[in-house]
Amino acid sequence: MTRVWKWNRPVTVREVLEDLQQERSIAYTTVMTVLDNLHQKGWVRREAEGRAYRYEAVSTRAAYAAALMNDAWSQSDNPAAALVAFFGMMSEEQRQALRDAARIVGIPESPEPEPKPRTHPDTQVENPAANPNENPTDNPTQNPGSAPEAPGR
Fold first, then answer.
1. pLDDT in tens, 32-43
2. Where is this region: Disordered (predicted)?
């Protein structure tokens, strides 16, 4: 697939063979079998050209990588933990690429945390002024300015 993606155009077995032979010895039939297998798996499409075929990638390398990541992630029994572990393996360059990608798709870089409800420090009652029918001076435990009652009163 690397060779097919590299040219970004339909390629013949002969073109792939000649490119590979610059690095190592490989048989024409091996390249032909690999490209045929890729076609059967749906990774490349082919069109007849004379007695040969021209092979072209069905998707981009980026789309293929994304599909692999999605497949691996979806098979996890704990997707959040898998993401945390994956992010922990990333280099700073990869983290920057992740931030750039998130910005492109419109995900804010760091979401603002939701504000926590305010509580009175002595009573842990949420927002004592929330009930407009209650006068805070009627209940000294909810009045921040009142002194605690003495025992026995």
1. 999 999 999 999
2. 101-153
